[in-house]
Design goal:
It is built from nine helices and nine strands. It is an alpha/beta fold and about 270 residues long. The strands form two sheets. Strands 3-2-1-4-6-7-9 form a seven-stranded parallel beta sheet, with helices on both faces. It is globular and about 60 Å long.
Length: about 270
């Protein structure tokens, strides 16, 4: 590898939100960025490619295209994902599977496809953008939290397995960010009908959306990504978000379970 050449970075979910912020920031910082999405962003200042993370062949073709142009892949930033809301009971199994197909299996597919190349290079860094929802089972985001808990465990295991090959794996647990997530959120179909959970769901959803409006700017997460991939000894996990969310997530193991549950119910006005 020619160390004088800029590092090659693949960012999934790069058409909006955190993924777009990462792509723009790293491009400005001199990295060779490939932004991947099902529907690539037009007129982007970085290279784009079509990639559906739920389609293994699509992922393989996308990474092969990058390697054919650059000869390597140094960094993967796994941002592709969405949030499905509604009571667990109101999610059909199809809806639950769709959530996990993207947020867990899709990211897993990207990791599995990139790793052989990184092992061969004896270098590389995978940064999985996760969520504080992978630390706390959030009400009316249970299916989303399940996918994020799974991603937390997967990332930790990968870090143990790949370090001897010179490959770093890092998880960013992000709190609420002011992105288009509020607009693009998926609602369980049953939650839009006469659900027995309707009253509490609407109250909780209003709080979620306000928290997102008050959330951190995605640029802050992009700067953290750069800090991680330039570190000589990056940590396995970084947590970022509004201060009260980060504090609550870290405080959980140290407070009585009943008290923590009471705080969550009180915050979301669940009675």
């Amino acid at each position: 590898m020619n160390l004088d050449q800029p590092q090659v970075v693949l960012i999934t979910g790069a058409s909006s939100g955190i993924g777009l912020a990462c792509a723009l920031h790293l491009q400005q910082r001199g990295y060779t960025v490939f932004g991947a999405n099902r529907h690539p962003r037009e007129n982007a200042p970085f290279a784009t490619l079509g990639m559906d993370v739920t389609d293994e062949q699509s992922v393989q073709d996308g990474i092969a295209a990058i390697v054919s142009q650059t000869g390597r892949l140094d960094v993967v930033v796994n941002c592709a994902g969405f949030s499905s809301v509604g009571a667990v009971e109101d999610h059909s199994l199809t809806e639950a599977r769709e959530q996990l197909e993207t947020n867990f299996f899709g990211r897993l597919c990207v990791c599995r496809t990139a790793l052989p190349l990184m092992r061969q290079q004896r270098s590389g860094h995978i940064v999985n953008i996760g969520s504080i929802g992978g630390m706390v089972g959030l009400p009316f985001q249970g299916v989303y939290s399940a996918a994020e808990f799974a991603m937390t465990g997967l990332t930790e295991a990968l870090r143990f397995e790949t370090r001897s090959f010179g490959v770093h794996v890092t998880l960013i647990r992000a709190g609420d960010a002011n992105t288009e997530n509020t607009i693009h959120r998926h609602h369980a179909r049953a939650a839009q009908q006469d659900s027995v959970y309707a009253t509490h769901f609407r109250t909780t959803l209003n709080i979620m959306e306000q928290d997102e409006r008050d959330g951190i700017k995605p640029d802050k997460i992009a700067r953290l990504v750069e800090k991680i991939i330039t570190s000589k000894s990056p940590r396995g996990v970084y947590t970022i978000g509004p201060i009260f969310e980060v504090f609550a997530a870290y405080a959980r193991p140290f407070v009585p379970a009943r008290f923590f549950e009471w705080c969550v119910r009180k915050y979301y006005r669940l009675g």
